[in-house]
Amino acid sequence: MSDKLDKIDLSILKILQDNSKITNLDLSKRIGLSPAPTLERVKKLEQNEVIQSYHAKVSPEAIGLMVKTFVLVSLDWRKNQARENFLEQVQIIDEITECYIITGEADFLLKIVCKDIPTYERLLFKTLQQIDEIERLKTLMTLSTVKDVKRLPFDYDGEA
């Protein structure tokens, strides 16, 4: 789809990533089109799943989620359907907010957000370590966030 995106589509994407609450009228003024074709373009970007969803960015600290960890997971591939069973378990653990299949020293990278260290410890020992398919876990504890950008790194001006 990125081949078919023109400069106006790219401008729309850039603006919506910075502020998804912008009105269609304000968006149309910023990109230089009238409201009707602007709305058509946004709808087309949504239908083609270039725009996948809209979200409110909530401060974890404001709602009492003070601990963020990344966990490297290595599976025991001798277990039957290890990957499928592990991924099924990941889907039902709310504290796991992201899960990636990776290369390198582990098979998966999990991002976990929870209330505090005792909560993380319970999650680690009573939930994660109880998943039979997991052979090894390695926790990377975050101290602070120095960059958290949601805009994707793309040439929004459409110039090569």
From TrEMBL:
Domain HTH asnC-type per the UniProt entry, residue ranges: 5-66
GO annotations of cellular component type: cytosol
Gene3D superfamilies membership: 3.30.70.920, Winged helix-like DNA-binding domain superfamily/Winged helix DNA-binding domain (1.10.10.10)
CDD domains, sorted: HTH_ARSR
Record SUPFAM superfamilies: Dimeric alpha+beta barrel, Winged helix' DNA-binding domain
SMART domains recorded: HTH_ASNC
Example GO BP: regulation of DNA-templated transcription
Keyword Transcription regulation: yes
One Gene Ontology MF term: sequence-specific DNA binding
InterPro entries: ArsR-like_HTH (IPR011991), AsnC-type_HTH_dom (IPR000485), Dimeric_a/b-barrel (IPR011008), Tscrpt_reg_AsnC-like (IPR019888), Tscrpt_reg_AsnC/Lrp_C (IPR019887), WH-like_DNA-bd_sf (IPR036388), WH_DNA-bd_sf (IPR036390)
Domain of life: Bacteria
Keywords: DNA-binding, Transcription, Transcription regulation
The protein's name: Lrp/AsnC family transcriptional regulator
Organism for this UniProt entry: Neolewinella litorea
